[in-house]
Every structure is written in structure tokens, then in C-alpha cells.
Specification:
It contains 18 helices and 25 strands. It is about 25% helix and about 20% strand. The strands form six sheets. Strands 1, 2, 3, 4, 5, 6, 7, 12 and 13 form a nine-stranded mixed sheet that branches. It has a six-stranded parallel sheet with strand order 18-17-16-19-21-22, with helices on one face. Strand 16, helix 9 and strand 17 (about 365-370) form a beta-alpha-beta unit. The protein is α+β, with helices and mostly antiparallel strands and about 675 residues long. Keywords: Lyase. Belongs to the D-glutamate cyclase family.
Length: about 675
């Protein structure tokens, strides 16, 4: 039986019930009883009304409005049907009711909250030209493991409703849901149900199952049925709710129904994971800023041809995936200067620690895995980064030897169980990558395999573990993760047919210098976490919206010290719209002016500003033998000591422990030799 709740603004209101076993068809609503709207009802004591309203506003509950419940008039004629209401006493459902009229005296001191029962969602889908799957009006919903923000005594987990949407129509759906400003609003999750704690879509907690046809993606919105557990949690002496699957008709005006919801035009959706299937969303303004960052870091100062390696939106998708991650494993280290101790070039570690710093600012766990021979170096770098305030706390520094079969899975997962991953994202920034023949090469085809531990195996194993994604940042194609673009490397990069990394990452971020990629990832995370659309999606809409709480984010962004260390250029938090782009432009301009990693940028790494020292690192002191114009064999501009070319007369064509790779130069054109390309 369906219930009609008429609210009169100036007279004593009367509650009328009429049986409606199913939701009304949206297309006929305008002609029904003066344009009444369907809703579900929660009736609570007036003393709890402010807390419940705050609970609805702090969580993704589709509140349409509220009314003071009137004294009931005479019961109208009814048609046969099921119970329309549930009665709760001390948090326990004690029975079902056909009508509320027998509780007229108690209702005088109660407030009725009206929530969207799902009909708006079907209307949005239909208006957008998308298939509707719930024409029968069934209350189909799933309990999740996502906690709602607790307000007073209201505390529960989110309940969601699901609709399958064709994959090729996902962008149209997000635009339609975000443009209206009213219910149903943007979804709270797009993709695999297990990410919400839903074990089986075929077994909903409410209503009949709805299959997800091939080529469709499950999309989830908050359901008013969350209120059932919320009412139980508050344990009030008396409360009423609509029975799942039943609705009432209300004359609530559209202006009231949408008053607490605002349009979010220009929303974009991006696929960030295939296994498990996962999409993310952000505002168009945020995504455009990240695309600007991608264009900035793609500048090719060495004319190496990296433009051929670029793939659109890799930085955007990588930063979205990182934004959803909770625990990130970082790696870096390219031992290209094999005649020095340590042999690492300075491209890589600064960008890695800059990203680690911002991950810490966001409250994410960050760990670092490095070569065993470089463990002491990175321990000193991390200690000094903590002393200088670059890192909040020390990050775990790990090593991986891969001595036994299954070692990679044991390293990545608790007890080797792929259902219990320790990390959900891996990031390699200027990390030497394994070539197709199993060796590791610098840009001049010198084999440096003996200096590299098998960290590549972790990225290969991550591809077989659902829930772990990966990003590789490189500037020449021989870095870990660049296997995603290996064909382009072989064709367009000098010596690419030999040096191309064969190990792919899910996302390949290409930069003129790999450090820029690390800086850009940190800045992109700042942009995303300053975007309300993305923040709402991250928190599954639980918790209040509003301005971003900076929590030291701007202090964690990469910075440049100008004027001999007298002034630090760091984008202010209040200018989040352009701050990250501005910061990267400064870094880029500074880099191009000096043609090596300036000591100012190394603030992200250590205190090596204005000629600072670090024992054991080749950047610690710079004497006459250092060449600012010398480019490291790994590809990054670096303030490293000049040393003979491996094929030069000074070196006799070889170095101890390092061999010249076989093969010929790649098919791509070679840039003219200049002072900045002296290593070629």
C-alpha cells in the first residue's frame, strides 16, 4: 500500500495514507496529486532532530527536507497491501505498521525527515539517455564496511544502492549526476564491490539481486536505508521509518529538496585500476591543472626524444591511484657513476623524498626499498631529511634480494597472501630497469647489472596481485616501469634497442628529468586533495564538505630557494588553484638555467643548500674536478664529478665490473652534440 503525506504550510497538517506497493513512475509524477514527490520517511523525537539532521548533512544521506509531524486526522480508505512503516523501541525494530494513526498522540512531539528513495536516480539515468534497471521500484541495497561520520548517538556503516552502467557511458553518467545539484548526486564508488566490503552483488542486503551484464560497471550511490541502522544506533525510546521498498508522496518543493546539494559541473572520471576494477573522479579544473604539470615536466632539455614516449594523462591517472593508496613503496637509485662510491646519480633521490614528504603530509604510509650496497647512503639521507624537517618521521628503508622463489610475493604481502598486501602502490623514480636480456644498462649501453638488486621482480609480481598498482618515472626509457613504452624507446631513443627497460608499470610518467616527475606527483596530489569533488569521493562522501584542511600540505610541497638561500619560494595554501603549476615552472626554469640539479632543489633531499655537505655522497663537496655541465650516464642532469666516457681513450673502453652492451644505436634520430649532450 502506498502512503501520501500532504504537508500544508499554514493549516494543521494531516497525514493521509494510500497504499503504493511500488515506487511511482517518474514520468507520471507531475500529474499525480499535484506533482507529489516520492520519499522515504524517518520519524524521530523532536529532541533528536538537530543531531539527525547534522548526521544526514555530514554523510551521504539523500535528505530532501523535514516537517513537524501533525496531529493525525481520520484514516482514509485503504487498499490491501503490506506494512508501510517499522516501529523502533530502544533501537530494536519491534513491529510493522499499516498506518501511523494509532500513534497520533506520540507523533505530536516528533519530526518527520523525508529522504530520496531512489526515484531521482532512475530519473537522472533516463534523462541522460542511460539504461534504467530499477523500473520496478525495488529497494535494492548493500551494507558496506565504510563507516559514516558519527554525530551524537547516530553511528553506523554506509548502505549503498547499485546500478550497472555501460563502461563507454561512464563519462556521460558522471556529468549527468554532477550537473543538476540535487539528488542523486555523484556516486560514492565506481568499480569493484569488494572495495566497499561487499562480498557478492548477487546477495543484496535489501531487495532482489540485480546482475551486472557484460560490459557494464557497478556504480554505487548512498541509500536512505543507512538510516535504519542509524535509528537503531541512537536507541531512542520510539521511532518510525518507512519499510524498505515502500515510499510516501510529499508536496516538498524542489527548492527545499535540493537546498543542501550544489551542482558540480565539469566532473571527469578516470580508470585507475583493472584488477580490481576501480574508477576515480575529480573536477575538470583539477584535472586540467595536472595536465599542465604533465606538459611542463615533458620538456626535453637533452633533446633525447622523450616526446615520443609520452602517453596522455599518465600523470593524472598515477596521481589519482596514489591518492587512493594507503601504503606506498618507493624505490630509486641509478648507479651510473660506477667508478665512484657511491655510484648513484643525484637524479631520483630528491624526487623520491619529495614525494615521500607529501605522502606523509596526507597521512599515508611511505616506505623505501633500495639496493643493499646503498643502504647506508639512504639511511643517512633520510636521517638528515628528518632533521631538516623535510620528512615528518623516518620512513622504513628496506632491501630486497629475491633469493628464493616466491620471495617477491612474501615481500609484498603478509605471509605471502595476495589478499593481504602490505602496499597498494609501488613507485619507481629514476630506478635502473631490467632490459629484455636481463641486464641493466645506462644510456651508453654499459651493463651495470652487478650494482642492482632485483627490485624489478617486485613490480612484476605486483602485476599478479589484485589491489597493487605501480608507477614508473623516467627520462630515457631505461628506468624501471618504462616497459610500458618500450617499443617507443627502441624506436626513438639512442641505444634504445639495447637499454630499453622490459618491466612495465601501470603508469609511465615521462619527464625531462626524473626528479621533475617526483615533484609533479607531489604537486598533483596537492591539487587533488584540494578538490572537493575528489575529496568527497575519497571519503565515500562521509564527513562534512568544505574548504580543504591543509594540515601542512603546502609546507610539504617541493620548494626552490632563490637569491643565495635568502628567500624560499613555496606556493601558499590559499593559492592552491595555481600553486603547484607555479612551483613546477620555477623548478623547471631553475633547472634549465643551471643545467644540473641545483643545491637549492636538494633541499628536498638533505640540507645541501648553499654548498652543504653530506659525508659519503658525491654531492657533498665540489672541487675543480666537478663539472656542472656533465650529464650522468643514467640520463639525468646532475652535479656529479667528471669521469671518462666508457668508450673513451682515458677508460680504455671498459670499467671494472661493467661491460659494454651489444647492439646498435636505436632507430630514432640522434640530437646534435652540444655541451649539455657531452655524454653522448
Amino acid at each position: 500500500m502506498a502512503l501520501s503525506l500532504h504537508v500544508k504550510s499554514c493549516l494543521s497538517l494531516a497525514l493521509r495514507s494510500v497504499t503504493r506497493p511500488r515506487m511511482p513512475d517518474l514520468r507520471s509524477l507531475s500529474s499525480m496529486a499535484g506533482g507529489l514527490r516520492p520519499a522515504s520517511v524517518v520519524v524521530l523525537p523532536e529532541s533528536l532532530a538537530p543531531a539527525f539532521e547534522s548526521f544526514c548533512q555530514a554523510n551521504p544521506l539523500p535528505l530532501m527536507g523535514k516537517r513537524k509531524v501533525p496531529t493525525l486526522g481520520a484514516a482514509p480508505a485503504t487498499r490491501p497491501g503490506g506494512a508501510q512503516f517499522q516501529r523502533y523501541e530502544a533501537g530494536i525494530c519491534t513491529g510493522s505498521l499499516l498506518s501511523l494513526e494509532d500513534h497520533g498522540g506520540q507523533l505530536e512531539d516528533m519530526v518527520a525527515f523525508m529522504l530520496d528513495c531512489g526515484s531521482s536516480l532512475e530519473g537522472t539515468l533516463e534523462e541522460a539517455g542511460l539504461p534504467t534497471w530499477d523500473a520496478a521500484g525495488e529497494a535494492r541495497a548493500y551494507k558496506t564496511t565504510m563507516p559514516c561520520a558519527a554525530i551524537a548517538g547516530f553511528c553506523c556503516h554506509l548502505v549503498v544502492t547499485m546500478r550497472p552502467v555501460p563502461q563507454d557511458k561512464m563519462s556521460r553518467l558522471v556529468q549527468a549526476c554532477g550537473s543538476g545539484g540535487g539528488e542523486p548526486g555523484l556516486p560514492v564508488h565506481i568499480g569493484a564491490p569488494e572495495l566497499l566490503g561487499i562480498r557478492d552483488l548477487a546477495k543484496p542486503d535489501f531487495g532482489a539481486p540485480l546482475a551486472c551484464p557484460p560490459g557494464a560497471v557497478p556504480v554505487f550511490w548512498p541509500s536512505w536505508l543507512t538510516c535504519l541502522d542509524a535509528v537503531s544506533s541512537c536507541k531512542t525510546s520510539l521511532a518510525f521509518t518507512s519499510t524498505p521498498g515502500c515510499s510516501v508522496l510529499t508536496d516538498l518543493k524542489d527548492t527545499e529538496a535540493t537546498a543542501s546539494h550544489h551542482p558540480t559541473p565539469g566532473t571527469e572520471v578516470q580508470l585507475i585500476s583493472e584488477a580490481p576494477l576501480h574508477y576515480s573522479i575529480a573536477s575538470a579544473s583539477a584535472t586540467q591543472k595536472i595536465r599542465k604539470l604533465e606538459a611542463v615536466i615533458a620538456t626535453d632539455p637533452g633533446s633525447r626524444g622523450i616526446g615520443h614516449l609520452l602517453q596522455a594523462d599518465e600523470l593524472l591517472r598515477a596521481s589519482l591511484a596514489l591518492s587512493h593508496a594507503r601504503s606506498v613503496l618507493l624505490t630509486t637509485g641509478f648507479p651510473t657513476h660506477f667508478r665512484h662510491e657511491p655510484p648513484e646519480e643525484t637524479d631520483g633521490p630528491p624526487g623520491t623524498l619529495a614525494l615521500a614528504s607529501f605522502l606523509q603530509a596526507l597521512g599515508k604510509a611511505a616506505s623505501l626499498v633500495v639496493d643493499r650496497r646503498a643502504l647506508g647512503l639512504f639511511q643517512k639521507l633520510v636521517e638528515e631529511a628528518v632533521e631538516q624537517g623535510v620528512l615528518k618521521t623516518r620512513i622504513p628503508i628496506l632491501t630486497y634480494t629475491g633469493v628464493s622463489p616466491g620471495a617477491a610475493r612474501e615481500f609484498l604481502c603478509e605471509a605471502g597472501d595476495p589478499k593481504l598486501p602490505r602496499f597498494d602502490h609501488l613507485v619507481a623514480i629514476e630506478r635502473t630497469g631490467r632490459a629484455a636480456d636481463g641486464n641493466h644498462y645506462n644510456a651508453r649501453k654499459v651493463n651495470i647489472k652487478q650494482l642492482a638488486d632485483p627490485i624489478d621482480d617486485l613490480f612484476l609480481e605486483a602485476q599478479r596481485i589484485p589491489g597493487i598498482s605501480s608507477t614508473g618515472v623516467g627520462d630515457g626509457g631505461n628506468e624501471l616501469g618504462m616497459g610500458k613504452v618500450k617499443e617507443a624507446v627502441r624506436k626513438h631513443i639512442w641505444n634504445g634497442d639495447v637499454i630499453a627497460c622490459d618491466v612495465a608499470a601501470d603508469f609511465a610518467v615521462i619527464a625531462g628529468v626524473s626528479n621533475w616527475g617526483g615533484y609533479a606527483l607531489a604537486c598533483a596530489l596537492h591539487i587533488l586533495n584540494s578538490c572537493e569533488v575528489h575529496r568527497r569521493y575519497l571519503r565515500k562522501a562521509a564527513g562534512r564538505s568544505g574548504a580543504a584542511i591543509d594540515q601542512g600540505w603546502s609546507q610539504a610541497l617541493p620548494s626552490v630557494i632563490k637569491g643565495g638561500g635568502r628567500r624560499t619560494v613555496r606556493p601558499p595554501c590559499c593559492q592552491a588553484d595555481l600553486s603547484s603549476v607555479f612551483c613546477l615552472h620555477l623548478l623547471l626554469r631553475k633547472r634549465l638555467q643551471t643545467a644540473f640539479i641545483p643545491s637549492a632543489d636538494l633541499r628536498c633531499l638533505t640540507s645541501m643548500t648553499s654548498g652543504g655537505k653530506h659525508a659519503g655522497h658525491p654531492c657533498a663537496t665540489r672541487g675543480p674536478e666537478w663539472s656542472d655541465w656533465q650529464r650522468g650516464h643514467g640520463g639525468g642532469w646532475a652535479a656529479l664529478p667528471w669521469h671518462p666516457r666508457p668508450d673513451g681513450p682515458e677508460a680504455g673502453g671498459h670499467h671494472p665490473g661493467c661491460t659494454q652492451g651489444a647492439g646498435t644505436r636505436g632507430a630514432g634520430p640522434r640530437a646534435p652534440k652540444t655541451s649539455r649532450d657531452a655524454y653522448k
